[in-house]
């Protein structure tokens, strides 16, 4: 028997790595580098909370631990779509969980300080 890889499998990283998409920047990354988020129902608004152990039940969404990705996800209204919940969402637990700044490269920011040619 051969060890054939099905199309689309094992092409995004090392063999056996799980790849997910950040809901903020839409970049694919290994799941271990992303924060898993879940919606906790029963509260109004629905609370979005981090799941660092990746064991909470329910649908998960993934986000780089970077405030820029959080802001992009907010702007795109990606939390509700990714978690399949409607209505207002409480993101306080996510904001508190994320570090103030990280080394996630992310897409480059527009260069607003371009030098002009003389």
UniProtKB/TrEMBL annotation:
Residues in YlxR domain copies: 20-88
Region described as Disordered: spans on this chain: 98-118
Pfam families in alphabetical order: YlxR
Protein name: YlxR domain-containing protein
Organism, scientific name: Aeromicrobium halocynthiae
Domain of life per record: Bacteria
Entries under SUPFAM superfamilies matching the protein: YlxR-like (SSF64376)
Spans through the membrane: none
């Amino acid at each position: 028997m051969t060890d054939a890889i099905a199309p689309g499998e094992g092409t995004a990283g090392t063999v056996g790595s799980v790849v997910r998409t950040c809901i903020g920047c839409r970049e694919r990354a290994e799941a271990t580098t992303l924060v898993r988020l879940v919606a906790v129902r029963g509260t109004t608004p629905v609370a979005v909370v981090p799941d660092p152990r990746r064991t909470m039940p329910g649908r998960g969404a993934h986000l780089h631990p970077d405030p820029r990705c959080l802001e992009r996800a907010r702007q795109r209204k990606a939390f509700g779509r990714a978690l399949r919940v409607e209505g207002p969402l409480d993101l306080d637990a996510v904001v508190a969980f994320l570090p103030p700044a990280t080394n996630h490269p992310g897409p480059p920011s527009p260069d607003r300080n371009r030098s002009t040619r003389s």
